[in-house]
Amino acid sequence: MNPRDGLSRRGVVVKLGILLNAAVGAILAVPIVRYLLSPVIRERRAGSESWLALGPLDRFPAGQTRLATYRNPIANSSDGETANIPCWVRNVDGEKFQVFAINCAHLGCPVRWFPQSGLFMCPCHGGVYYSDGSRASGPPERGLFEYSYKVEQGKLLIRAGALPTPGSPVPSLTNISIRRSPCA
Amino acid sequence: MRLIRIAGDWLEQRIQLAGPIRETMEHPVPRQTASWAYVFGSAALTVFMFQLVTGILLALLYVPSAAEAWNSLQILNHDVSLGWFIRALHGWGSNFMIAIVLIHMVQVFLFGAYKFPRELTWLVGVLLLLLTLGMAFTGQVLRFDQDAYWGLGIGASIASRVPVLGPWIVNLLLGGPIIAGATLSRFFALHVFVIPGSLLAFVGLHLLLVLKLGINEWPMPGRIVRRATYLKEYHELTHKDGIPFVPGAVTRDLFFSAFILLSITVCALYFGPFGPSGQPDPTIIQTVPRPDYFFLWLYAVLSLLPPSMETPALLIGPVIAIGVLIALPFFSGEGEKSWKRRPIAVLTILIVAVALGAFTRLAGNAPWSPVMDAWSGEPIPAQYLKGRTALQRQGALVFQAKQCHNCHELGGVGGRRGPELDRVAVTLTEDQLIRQVIQGGGNMPAYGKNLSPAETTALVAFLETLSPVGQPPAREASRK
Known about the structure:
heterodimer, A: Rieske Iron-sulfur Protein, 2 domains, 4-stranded antiparallel beta sheet, 3 helices, 28% strand, B: mainly alpha, Cytochrome Bc1 Complex, Chain C, Cytochrome Bc1 Complex, Chain D, domain 2, two-stranded antiparallel ribbon, two-stranded antiparallel sheet, 2% strand
């Protein structure tokens, strides 16, 4: 046996060792990546988006727009007050409601309702919306985000659970989670 | 003394680093690099070390939980002796670090130090700049107050605009569907482990490259960089006319670093810590979120871009900017180094500096934000009400009650989202005023549905009085 044979045998063993480590790494990578992506595939978890009560109907008088708050459906003790989410409830005519997200459709700052002028104004970049949530002026490219609602046993319920953003406004959230299922 | 030498020898016998360290310290550098223009890199390193130390001190008491973080900052500020001072040092240290890194980058750019063979040093430097900005943003989040909370919302809104992947990126960024406990935890991990770890590694690489390739020589007009000859020329420069780094060039670095640390300390003592502002409770909507100083220019850009341009600018702008920085050393890796013969380089720096400065200054008074309480908190100046008719005064009341004052300035108070109205009667006729109020337009909401005819009449009667003494109000040309 000449030295070159020994060397090449040693070389093969080293390569095998590296290969073994790469294989173990690849196997470990699967659960690690799955763990890192858990916020994305969380949508499958039951209750991440659900019907939440905003309170009895008489808290929202006809023709007025009032601030309401709800506790996010998925919340734990480390969330503290950040899981309390506000929204604007407009009682259009005693029958029909509109529930707007607090977040401006531009960059998510909290819009404020001014009943005197019937406008929502954003303190950040000056986005303004009419009382029905449609865009009035400023940088937003669309109207306010709107939650779907229903009335049950004298209570107003909305479907919520995610921060609405220009790329993922509330109404299409359900569609997104449907589209998401095959990937997850 | 003898004991120290024995201990030193004992250690050296085992570590065997004295030789390489001495060699590194005494390596020859070009004579002219012993200059105040070359102190910013070492100062950035000093401030980075300073941030590591003060950051660890803060981590002793900071609680990275959305329910507790704000309280733990209050405890640091008020209950722990000198806790406020450590917070102030870390906050001011971050401001100084960004400023010094930027100045260092400008100096390197103007001195042509990114050219052959130091391309990789520049690329690592670009990465270090991005990591430093990442530290600034994540640090602002850890100061978990109202600004941090809504700042995260802004970050999420920007990220969500990425085509197709937007919603996924938002959830990854926030660690869930809303800004909450998981969000703060992951920004804590980024600010305390991931980014500082990367910074340490790449600062090490950056320094290694500086040592291997040598400090950039003082650029002389006409001394052209050529790949074929540069290394030989640099070797001659350092070995024939060079000085040892220690003690030749390092003196100014030491003095400047000490000066910077002293400045941070003085700022921390005088100005105190940054915030925290109000509690991170999203149901408190009486808030006017503002970004930290170094992101104010971005705040201005986001307000001033036309809406249709915004998403492309937000998504493509950073890619182009980083792409240009990466391409720079490959695009102009050779040639003239001196800023005296590189007018475009000097102009670029000037334009970027003026633009960033102007945007930052503009964002300081944020004329695009409505003054949310002007309608109830800023009365109409008395001179606009004296000697007016009842109808005109009623109009002034409408002006306040309908929040016109939130966006329109009168007598120097109120919002500046819309034009100031002190002389509106000179530029608009009565009919034009009525149309503007009712139909809006030009970035003004239409008030047609929210004003009764009587209110509109009164409001326009008031606006008609707003012309300076001696300047007649605008009249319809056809109605002489």
